[in-house]
Amino acid sequence: MPPILKLDDIFLSFGGAPLLAGAGLQVGPGDRICLVGRNGSGKSTLMKIAAGMVEPQSGEVFRHPNATIRYLEQAPDFAHYATVQAYAESGLGPNDDPYRVTYLLEHLGLSGEEDPNTLSGGESRRAALARVMAPEPDILMLDEPTNHLDLPTIEWLEEELRKTKSALVVISHDRRFLERVSTATVWLDRGTSRRLDRGFSHFEVWRDEVLEAEELEQHKLGKAIEREEHWLRYGVTARRKRNMRRLSELQTMRSSYRGHKGPQGTVQAQITEGRESGKLVIEAEDITKGYEERTIVAPFSIRVHRGDRIGLVGPNGAGKTTLLKMLTGQLAPDAGVVKLGTNLEIATLDQKREDLDPEDTLSHYLTDGRGETLLVNGEQRHVAGYMKDFLFQPEQIRTPIRNLSGGERARLMLARMMAKPSNLLILDEPTNDLDIETLDLLQEIVAGYNGTVILVSHDRDFLDRTVTSTIAPANPDAPDGRWIEYAGGYTDMLVQRKGALEERRKAEKAEKARTETGAPAGETVKARGKLSYKQKFALENLPKEMAKAEAEIALREKKMADPALFTKDPATFNRLAAEMDKLRQSLVKMEEEWLELEMLREELEG
Length: 606
What we know:
Blueprint: E1 5-12, E2 20-27, E3 32-36, H1 43-51, E4 58-63, E5 69-71, H2 84-89, H3 99-107, H4 121-133, E6 139-143, H5 151-163, E7 167-171, H6 175-181, E8 184-189, E9 192-196, H7 203-234, H8 236-240, H9 244-259, E10 280-291, E11 294-305, E12 309-312, H10 320-327, E13 335-340, E14 346-349, H11 362-367, E15 373-376, E16 379-382, H12 383-389, H13 406-419, E17 424-428, H14 436-448, E18 452-456, H15 460-466, E19 469-473, E20 483-487, H16 490-517, H17 533-560, H18 565-568, H19 570-605
Parallel strand pairs: 3-7, 3-8, 5-6, 6-7, 12-18, 12-19, 14-17, 17-18
Antiparallel strand pairs: 1-2, 1-4, 8-9, 10-11, 10-13, 15-16, 19-20
Helix pairs in contact: 7-9, 16-19, 17-19
């Protein structure tokens, strides 16, 4: 199948070392590509070249003349648009369905009547997503689409992208998101690109194999150079007459060996831990908070002990930041009491990057303007050496912060936070803009931190790997101010929440049966005797029917995974998608029916 977009041997430099030197990207109909690489490797630049927003200095760029491409802007331009609806509709083509804009805005939590110039960062991202997704273009290019989105919206977006007919090129730091939407991986590394025709879940093993093979080749080249140099000095032929061909080959090998640029290093840093805090870090008793008629936090109590690592999750607007500020003493509750423990030294990483002055230099920011050194773990470090630990070059010491990319700004804030002594870390969306390797380091730091951690995050994988308990709204679909602490990470929270929901349904079922039979309080449906024949048959056969539905769904997913299916046979693709939706709806109904019958059986058996 011929590609609808092809970049080949792309070269681009901004004056120093080339950013892109031989990079490529090929997109065919139905491709699901994740574009990965270190911060600063040129991922966003390559995507902008593909979208026609940046011109390379050399290389081949082919775009099918009839192909439509939409690129998700990091900073949308809302000028000349009175409403979000008007902005989103401006991305539609003549034959596109305007109702799709309304559908997307509704699922993204926007009415369309909002003034674009008053939107928050998260709302801006949602509006931009609606604009690029509405036309269902041939190629949809998404640069960090999950930044500022809450978990329910991220999970909805995953399903929407899995169903779309558009080819995808996605950049994201969210491991789980990439695993669920990608079927191919393009790795941008040291200016060049490599492609793996498998999804992101296979990337890290493949990357490590590639780097190991490269290291082995360099070792072999070094040994070959040693052998040739030995021949040059001691070979009998060499003493009589120089073999110019072998001499030339030796020079080529030396040049290749010296010119080899290894992979970019990883962040090498340790957090500066302060003195030990008291055993009880935070105690909150029946704290509440509300604005006008809305309850943000209903009576909530918690005891946070030294060494706890607590995650805060929930939809945007549920009140995560409000609850966090009350727990850390930054905001007074309307009622209730918050007591902070002794010897607390707090270090904060703010997702809004509010304390970054764009005119400040890296050196001034890291040292607070106190010269060229800073104290790290009790040791005086020169700022240039400390910056190098976080992959900044010495020549960037006087660079204004405004010149940094989003990933570099995130690393800079991480560097400053880790230099300060602390025993309580407050991390608000710490994973935004960090590359996979730096995320790995941050996970290790948080998981091994001897102090206490409270973090707000929408990164499910990060939560599962780091926190010991999770605070989430009791009612995630319609937050009412009630918060519950669950043991474990995000996935553990979902399991426990499902169990609590089943228990509530069980109680409601029993109460309904008691009401219908007129039994006095305390009696349950046990008084009704036993399951009917029809109920017994359904209870025994529903699991078989559910397994059959799951197999049918898997069969259709396998057929739809063929990237060429939509192009070759769009009617079959659409039919399979419709069948799969019906099967999933049927499966949900069967699961609910089986659960109700199982609870009823347990009631009757006592």
